[in-house]
Amino acid sequence: MEDDIFRILLPLVPLTKAIKQINIDKETAKNNAKKVKTTSMPDAVVPSVNLRGAKKRKVENFLYDILKNQLGLVEGQPVFPASTKLWMRIFYFNHEKNQSRDVHNIVKPTIDALQDFVYQDDKDILYLEVIRLDMEELGISFDVQVDTNCGIKNVKKTGEETCFIIEAGILEAGTIRPVTSQVVNMKWR
């Protein structure tokens, strides 16, 4: 059953850092008498339902690039067969100091990005669990251990950078909830 679990790590740039970089880019361009696009944004930012237009497309393109080019997934050939009852767990390792992003804002764009790569339709996800871990609270509000031998590429980034670990699997008949994560072990204090 453990072999049937899909796992990935999505590296992300915190939005506050992205905005800071945009402001630096604008100031540099202004000082050099050059025009800078206001839609400039690093490719990897935390997905948010609040992003619109060019910024939203840039985030979507970044996620698409990771799924296709870095993870080798093929659009239109999802990992799980169509109409399979699925569970999904998203661990959001947040390294933004004094900045909390509402969990519901990151869920929809992330689930949309995985469609056609991991599952055919997001309506197949019957159980969804999203956990935001504000890493500045590590040891105060919660304890967490990540299995660095789990086979997820760059998994050590969870301790240093804002990122997601996403797990998904098939809901087994007769179960109430999916298996406990074998990669991320945590407890609240």
Write a compact overview of the structure shown.
The protein has about 190 residues and is α+β, with helices and mostly antiparallel strands.
Notes on the structure:
The chain has 189 residues and is α+β, with helices and mostly antiparallel strands. Helix 2 packs across helix 3 (103-114). The longest helix has 18 residues, at 53-70. The protein is built from three helices and six strands, in the order E-H-H-E-H-E-E-E-E. It has one domain (2-188): 60s Ribosomal Protein L30, Chain: A (2-Layer Sandwich), CATH 3.30.1330. Strands 1-5-2-3 form a four-stranded mixed beta sheet, with no helix packed on it. Strands 4-6 form a two-stranded antiparallel sheet.
Keyword list:
189 residues, alpha+beta, 60s Ribosomal Protein L30, Chain: A, two-stranded antiparallel sheet, 6 strands
CATH topology (level 3) name? 60s Ribosomal Protein L30, Chain: A
| Helix/strand/pairing category | alpha+beta
General form: globular
> Judging by the overall fold, what is the CATH architecture?
2-Layer Sandwich
Return Rg in Å.
Answer: 18 Å
Sequence-ordered SSE layout with sheet pairings:
Blueprint: E1 6-11, H1 15-31, H2 53-70, E2 86-94, H3 103-114, E3 125-134, E4 142-146, E5 163-170, E6 184-188
Parallel strand pairs: 2-3
Antiparallel strand pairs: 1-5, 2-5, 4-6
Helix pairs in contact: 2-3
